[in-house]
Design brief:
239 residues, Nucleotidyltransferase, domain 5
């Protein structure tokens, strides 16, 4: 499987997002009304728009990016290594510009890999770039491209094998392949609280980087290769 994928051309990514405002009532009134309409069919009967606001970070129209972690494979002394860095902070535009600059320095045939990337990470990044007035980098751009020209890998999609009704979490795939879980500290449902209440962005960055490492290890297993030992994985503050 994936025999034609050159690992040295792959960027494994993951993003962490939160609502643009800590509290529902801090949103401008028009956006409160739009949120109420957007989520009306998704909320339980007893839930208000305010109750449901915990999930606002999932939607690019109401959320923002606080961390983008990027990992890449490289060989050293004949052994496979992996390096992970992150773009993160409170200023979303600066994060996106930094990530954009990194991509503009890469070849156009760069491959992206993310878990559920086609449904979440890739479109979310594109939407937030447009909102922030940033040109979408060529590696993320879909317009005018044929399906086989889109260099986006998605480990969740690959695991589906055409079964469109199937959803498999990164945590479950890690367990299936006997790979250490990336959710040993926090999970996605806790990111908003850790960011706004605990004010611990570094904890979120660590969590995001763990997701990147796990996605990379799963990609290796899809290719029939051994996972990379911990001593061959390097974590850095920035990309």
């Amino acid at each position: 499987m994936l025999k034609g994928v050159n690992l040295n051309k792959v960027f494994v990514i993951d993003i962490e997002t939160v609502p643009q405002y800590e509290h529902f009532e801090e949103m401008p009134i028009p956006f409160q009304q739009l949120w109420e309409r957007k989520t009306r069919s998704l909320r339980r009967e007893e839930q208000t728009a305010d109750d449901f606001y915990e999930r606002a970070g999932i939607w690019a129209e109401f959320g923002k990016v606080i961390c983008i972690s990027v990992g890449f494979f490289y060989n050293n002394l004949g052994k496979q290594h992996f390096r992970v860095g992150s773009h993160f902070g409170d200023n979303e535009r600066e994060i996106l510009l930094s990530f954009n600059k990194l991509l503009n320095e890469q070849p156009s045939d760069l491959l992206f890999c993310a878990h559920n990337g086609k449904e979440f990470d890739y479109p979310y990044l594109c939407r937030r770039m447009l909102i922030n007035g940033i040109e979408i980098p060529k590696q993320l751009e879909l317009t005018g491209k044929r399906p086989w020209e889109i260099n986006h890998l998605d480990t969740m999609e690959l695991w589906k094998f055409g079964d469109y009704k199937n959803y498999t979490s990164l945590n479950l795939l890690a367990a299936v392949f006997n790979i250490p879980t990336p959710k040993d500290d926090i999970d996605g449902s806790m990111v908003k609280n850790v960011y706004y209440v605990e004010n611990d962005l570094q904890r979120i960055v660590t969590y995001c980087q763990k997701d990147v490492i796990t996605t990379a290890q799963i990609l290796l297993r899809f290719k029939g290769l051994d996972t990379i030992p911990e001593e061959n994985i390097t974590l850095v503050t920035s990309c």
